[in-house]
Amino acid sequence: MDLRKAVMTDLPAVEELYREAQGFLRSQGVDQWQDGYPNGETFRKDVEEESAWVLEEDGKIVASAYLGTGREPTYDKIYEGAWAVDAEEYAFLHRIAVAGSCKGKGVPKLFFQQLEQEAREKGLSVLRGDTHRDNKIMQKVMEKNGLTYRGIIYLEDGGERFAYEKVLEK
Question: Under DSSP, is residue 95 helix (H, G, I), strand (E, B) or coil?
Fold first, then answer.
């Protein structure tokens, strides 16, 4: 499997991943991504920022994510906890979607490993992410990949999210 920066021609495949993830979350009773977000416009912006990534298997996109660098404004304040590291800049993950056909193949682990490597190559030593309180699967994925629950952050729209962090080895 190969990780690469996403390009606009990946839009149909990534939109399909988003729809699949939205349906899965809905079936699990998770109120995350049920308002039409993320969508094609979100992906377009991510590609323009050069922060959109996809993982391919045999030429087919099986996962996508946003890997930002710098600062995520919603992470500036954390409640009921604290970040382990007071980093001026860090890598942060958003919009992680993995094809259901990849269940049991270790795709999330490989995807996280490769995204971590990208962060290291940019000279960043901290990786952060967040997920919905009810998204138990993503919480487990983050924990399995070495991210530790650090507290609660609030999105710009007021939505509560569980925040995770990993200090990356050099």
Answer: strand
